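Can't paste images in this forum, so I'm doing it all in text. The chain is below; anyone willing to post the predicted structure tokens underneath?
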Amino acid sequence: MLKLAVFDFDSTLMDGETIDFFANELGLGEEVSKITEAAMSGELDFFESLQQRVGLLKGLDYTIVEKISHNLPYMNGAKETIAELKKRGMKVVCFSGGFRTATGYAKNILGYDADFSNVLHHKNGKLTGLVGGDMMFNYSKGDMLVRLQNMLGIKEDETLVCGDGANDLSMFAHAGTRVAFCAREILKKEANIVVETKDLKQILEKI
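Text version of the structure:
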């Protein structure tokens, strides 16, 4: 029986990449998007790519960051799927290589129990181009998942994970139910459930 569900945020619970929305404000959308795509496809080290992308955001007003973070388009079926999983007695958590401004705000809207993500450093009302947090490395999601499982007394075969990119691979290694959601090829290879339509409710039919 499944007891824990862990979802990625960008392009999984949310339809798009938060950092790309920020970059668009500075006219750097295309440049940042290319780096994001390479990182999610496993062609770039996640830590290096994150630092590189956040560095490009230096000088962006923090009020704009908050405004964008609070107006993101959530994925079709996200709210309903989380509600149903919780009804089935599962803890639902969000792991994101993105940012707390987005995942912390979405928590109460989408209904998950906790979020682990990164924090954009800001000073005097502007981004400094620095970032820190829970999900900085390729291995971060897997590392955090194992810690959660140990703390909650939940086994691998009682765990569902869902994501779309290469930085989700590390958590796939520690879960019995592995959902690749509109995902890159590198992740689909490790999944035992593949969803190709932008509707998270499809997961409910497959578990």
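The chain has a mean pLDDT of 96. The CA atoms of residues 169 and 187 lie 6 Å apart.
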